[in-house]
Every structure is written in structure tokens, then in C-alpha cells.
Amino acid sequence: MTAIEPTVFVVDDDAAVGEGIRNLLASLEIPVETYPSAQAFLNGYDASRAGCLLLDVRMPGMSGPELQELLAARRIELPIIFITGHGDIPMAVQAIKRGAVDVLEKPFRQEALLERVQQAFARDRQARERRAARVDVSQRMESLTPRERDVLRFLLRGDSADQIAAAMKLSSKTIYVHRGNLLDKLGARSVADLIRMWSVLEPSK
């Protein structure tokens, strides 16, 4: 196993449940770590690690939903699968609304758990790819000069080179030069590419 493989982080105060899940996932060579409480997980988790959280609802101290809220407040987007021994539909609805992958009621089928884990892994991978793309685009944007940023703002608005030249009181030739420079710096081939790159930043605004 490599360090970049996604891990299932199991948080359940019932040691037997945690051990059973550990054995199941380990038999399929899926990395897994177990924690007896929400606080123990917080103390041991590094937000750079990929994977998903298999989280019990009712635990002494901090409950599962409370941990979900705390992670959201800290902007930790680790996908969560709740597990519960109590059929609590209102809680399940709230958990899903807050972004949980699903809520599984104990005892759950192994197939159902594995399916949700794969869904959670996929969601986590996509989220990390989006975050990496935002960082990359942000870094490229920082390389632009103030004038190039002004030109970019007009281009994203849909203005032509002549319209930008008139608004900025520059020649169209100068605008084309700035346009070419910013395209090169951002690694874009066209204005359409610029629009797609800018859309990557919008979720973080």
C-alpha cells in the first residue's frame, strides 16, 4: 500500500463494530483506521489524507453530527458515511443535507457499505482535484500584471479587443499584446479557455 491510497477512517465507540469493519475492509486491501471517539479522530487526522469517514451517530462526548459540523467549520471536506443503530429519519435527512454520502443502519449489508465507500472515495478524489485546480489557476493569476488583469476582466465580460481598447484608452494593438501575454501566462489557448479557468475559481469565492 502507498501513502496516497485513500483510507477509511472509522469512528465508533463500539470496539466490536470498528473491528468488524476493519477486518472486512482489510480483507479487500482497503486501508482502514479505527478511532473510539470523535475527539480521538480529530487528534489523529491529517486533512491532507484522502479517503472517507465512516461515522457513528451516537457516541459519548461529541456525536457524529457534531463532528460533521465541526469538520465543515474547519473546511475539511472529507466525505462522511453515517452508521447508526437507531432508525432516525430526521437525523438522516439533515446529515444528507449537510453533505453526507449516506446513512447506513446497523446491521448493514457488506455490499452496501462497500458501494458507499467507493462512492465516497470518488467524491473525495473529485473534490481534491477541484481544489488542486483552483490552487493552480490562482497561482497563474498571480503572475499577471495589473494591466493584464484589467484586460482579463474585460475579456471575461465578453468585450472585443476594440471595446477594451476604447474603455482603457489604449490601441487595439496594445490590447492584443496584453491578451497574448495573459493567454501565455495562464496556459490558455483562447478566451473560451479563460472562461473555463475562471469558472474553476468561482466556487472558492
Low-confidence stretches: none
Order of helical and strand elements: EHEHEHEHEHHHHH
Determine the mean pLDDT.
89
Strand arrangement in the largest pleated sheet:
2-1-3-4-5
- CATH architectural arrangement of the largest domain: 3-Layer(aba) Sandwich
Query: How many distinct folded domains?
Result: 2
How many individual β-strands? 5
The end-to-end span amounts to 37 Å
Q: For the record, what CATH class of the largest domain applies? A: Alpha Beta
What Rg do the Cα atoms give?
Answer: 23 Å
CATH fold assignment of the largest domain: Rossmann fold
The main pleated sheet reads as: 5 strands, parallel
SSE class = alpha/beta
How would you sum up this structure, described in words?
The protein is α/β, with parallel strands linked by helices. It has nine helices and five strands; from the N terminus they run βαβαβαβαβααααα. Helix content is 58%, strand content 12%. A five-stranded parallel β-sheet has the order 2-1-3-4-5, with helices on both faces. α5 crosses α9 (191-201), α6 (146-157) crosses α8 (172-186) and α7 (161-168) packs across α8 (172-186). The longest helix has 33 residues, at 110-142. The chain is elongated and about 75 Å long.
In a nutshell, what does this entry contain?
The chain has 205 residues and is an alpha/beta fold. The chain is 58% helix and 12% strand. The chain has two domains: 7-131, Rossmann fold; 143-204, Winged helix-like DNA-binding domain superfamily/Winged helix DNA-binding domain (Arc Repressor Mutant, subunit A).
